[in-house]
Amino acid sequence: MKNEWxxxxxxxxxxxxxxxxxxxxxxxxxxxxxxxxxDSCTRCGRCVRLCPVGAITMEAKKK
Length: 63
Ligand code: SF4
Ligand code: SF4
Fold this sequence. Notes:
This protein has 63 residues and is an alpha+beta fold. The protein has a single domain (6-58), classed as Alpha-Beta Plaits (2-Layer Sandwich). Helix content is 16%, strand content 19%.
């Protein structure tokens, strides 16, 4: 299932694959243009910190 809290700015993303490579949950999938995140994401923030172009944002957990 696609999650709703991770987002990628497609205009910035250069499809390097670093985010998918670092995710401990294998929650990131690279498609032709899109990067998608599934709901096994634990919001660890690694991909957000690692992305060389700062294209990934993570929404705060809703209470
Ligand atoms: S690390 Fe950033 S630039 Fe690279 S594929 Fe992921 S979102 Fe795109
Ligand atoms: S925040 Fe962590 S668990 Fe979620 S997609 Fe990024 S690297 Fe994977």
